[in-house]
Specification:
Blueprint (H helix, E strand, L loop, with lengths): L25 H16 L16 E2 L26 E3 L1 E2 L3 E2 L4 E6 L4 E7 L3 H18 L4 H17 L1 H12 L3 H21 L7 E2 L6 E9 L2 E5 L7 H12 L3 E5 L5 H17 L7 E4 L3 H9 L5 E5 L2 H13 L4 E4 L4 E5 L5 H13 L9 E7 L3 H12 L20 H16 L3 E4 L14 E4 L16 E7 L2 H9 L3 E2 L1 E5 L3 H8 L8 E4 L11 E2 L2 E2 L6 E2 L8 E9 L14
Parallel strand pairs: 2-6, 9-10, 9-12, 10-11, 12-13, 14-15, 14-20, 15-18, 17-18, 20-21
Antiparallel strand pairs: 1-5, 3-4, 3-11, 5-6, 7-8, 8-25, 16-17, 19-23, 22-24
Length: about 575
């Protein structure tokens, strides 16, 4: 097999959430699919496009004495982002940190990159107080002028696009084009939010009473907490941050504990924009921290909205904590996404699409395709072609331009991958491709295809954040639609067909129950213009485009009497 130490590899992009569905930018998705198509058509060309992910984990100060990558000449570019050997992980107008020191590790070789001093609960308390004070200034700034600040943030990110994208690749593990694409997505949502700053608001409604007007007024919430995951350490924060800012809110960000350098670098870029405009830095605050601060955020009534991106299990506890205080929440949780391939599908589109969605980012997107439902008439052909494509995947360093597939994020992820493969075998699955750890430094595993499982097998209904694809065989449209909907999550879904009627049935009330419903494209690759999110155990939240901005504001119905009369309800009159 081609999955040995020096063998070539594959990885992919998306926003998904973080968002791809993150989704990454549409252009990046098109680039990936086009490249894979070329590789299928021309076997002598480069192996199918995908994405690679580096894993990096945080550890205790016991690893602090190791030689750091940032000290090596080849990684001097990290200093362009203001990073040093030791970094402070709290920002509320000034940089601080009184908590644990963690070391960021590169997942492709498990070497330490740099260290970050996290927030203590005391740091968190101080940061919340400063952010609430900063809101008093920020909320008074007209929305279009807030949009101008967001425009400047987008421009500042553009200037650091390449180097910040490389940091994402180094710390999270994505290939460089994907890391750059993720930063570009933050830039794109800034551009989107700038326009939105002159457009959002409510209507004036007709009143049934003469001389009266009804106005729907939208106002900022106040302080928005944002907790993001490792797989999209820039884009998902950007989706929330840009919209929250133009809506008049301050932001308090807790990034993933395993990607603190990215959180620090992004915040430094934003802080400079705020400073240049003589605005309080606490408008965009940061607390690099662990579960203690995350739990505090979910229970803190001073956070007017908490946007949480992460696992369904943790999201469930977050939801309970927020509900106990009757708070607002925006949850972007897991996805057990399916592609359904009918007998009339164009298989030349199917194979690269499945490969792109199942193996990209080493299967660590929330929109990753985990289930492939094949009509019985095309099952064997698709499995054969897909297996051949998998064996062309190249493995390598995410920062090298020819790398297309990389490692899982942590060693623990490798253990979960192996456990899932073992369970699939025990439950009747046949591993036709992959299933093993790749013999090389880092957290690399083989992209895996499993056939022969029942549609309701326990492992099929379990989201494993790894490149494992479960292939199922169906007989009818009704059966396929039912299987798509029978899992607990409801994030992304897709069918491949030429039947126009089937397309509309799929999008209709008896079709897919997911938040993202695609036709003839993969489950990943969402665009910022559409609302991103899912149903059921995915959390029900919506981020990015469409009317997602409404999550970040409160609505009031205002009645104005401009007449000289006072008509009362039910025609009551006081003499």
């Amino acid at each position: 097999m081609a999955f040995q130490g020096a063998a070539p590899g594959f990885t992919n992009h998306n926003a998904t959430r973080w968002r791809i569905p993150f989704p990454i930018a549409r252009a990046l998705a098109l680039h990936c699919v086009a490249s894979m198509l070329l590789q299928l058509v021309y076997p002598l060309a480069r192996a199918l496009l995908g994405r690679r992910t580096r894993t990096f984990c945080a550890s205790r100060h016991s690893a602090a004495m190791s030689t750091l990558l940032i000290q090596q000449p080849g990684y001097a570019w990290l200093r362009e982002l203001g990073l040093r050997e030791d970094n402070l992980g709290v920002f509320n107008g000034t940089w601080a940190g009184r908590g644990e020191i963690v070391t960021s590790y590169c997942p492709s070789n498990n070497e330490p990159i740099a260290r970050v001093k996290q927030a203590s609960l005391e740091d968190y308390e101080e940061t919340v107080q400063k952010a609430k004070e900063a809101w008093k200034i920020w909320a008074d700034i007209p929305a279009p002028k807030r949009g101008e600040i967001v425009r400047q943030i987008g421009d500042a990110l553009r200037k650091k696009l390449k180097v910040l994208g490389n940091l994402v690749s180094l710390e999270m593990g994505k290939i460089s084009i994907e890391g750059v694409g993720e930063v570009q997505e933050y830039i794109d949502i800034c551009d989107y939010a700038v326009g939105l700053s002159r457009m959002f608001g409510g209507p004036m409604l007709p009143s049934e009473r003469s001389g009266h007007a009804l106005i729907e007024q939208w106002n900022p919430l106040g302080l928005v907490g944002i907790i993001t995951a490792f797989n999209f350490p820039v884009a998902v924060y950007g989706w929330n941050n840009a919209l929250a800012l133009v809506c008049g809110n301050c932001c308090l960000w807790k990034g993933a504990p395993t990607t603190p350098l990215t959180s620090v670098a992004v915040t430094q870029i934003i802080a400079k924009v705020l400073e240049d405009n003589k605005l309080p830095g606490a408008i965009c605050s940061l607390t690099c921290a662990g579960a203690d601060v995350g739990a505090a955020m979910s229970k803190d009534e001073r956070l007017d909205l908490l946007s949480f991106t992460g696992s369904t299990n943790v999201g469930n506890q977050v939801a309970v904590d927020i509900q106990k205080r009757f708070g607002r929440k925006l949850l972007e949780l897991g996805g057990n996404n399916a592609i359904i391939v009918f007998d009339d599908a164009d298989l030349n589109m199917v194979v690269p699409s499945v490969l792109f969605a199942a193996v990209g980012t080493a299967g660590q997107r929330c929109t990753t395709t985990r289930r492939l439902l094949l009509h019985e008439s095309v099952h064997d052909e698709v499995v054969t072609r897909l297996t051949k494509a998998y064996k062309q995947i190249r493995v390598g360093d995410p920062l090298e331009s020819n790398t297309l597939y990389g490692p899982l994020h942590t060693k623990q992820s490798v253990d979960m991958y192996l456990a899932a493969v073992g369970q699939a075998k025990q439950q009747g699955g046949n591993v036709v491709c992959g299933g093993k750890v790749i013999n090389r430094p880092g957290n690399y595993v083989e992209p895996t295809i499993v056939t022969g499982l029942a549609h309701n097998a326990a492992i099929v209904h379990t989201e494993t954040f790894a490149p494992i694809l479960y292939v199922l065989k169906f007989k009818s449209e009704e059966e396929a639609f039912a299987w798509n909907n029978e899992v607990k999550q409801g994030l992304s879904s897709s069918i491949f067909t030429k039947d126009v009627g089937r397309m509309f049935r799929w999008m209709g009330p008896k079709g897919s129950d997911c938040g993202i419903v695609n036709v003839n494209i993969p489950t990943s690759g969402a665009e910022i213009g559409g609302a991103f999110g899912g149903e059921k155990h995915t959390g029900g939240g919506r981020e990015s485009g469409s009317d997602a901005w409404k999550h970040y504001m409160r609505r009031s119905t205002c009645t104005i009497n401009y007449s000289k009369e006072l008509p009362l309800a039910q025609g009551i009159k006081f003499e």
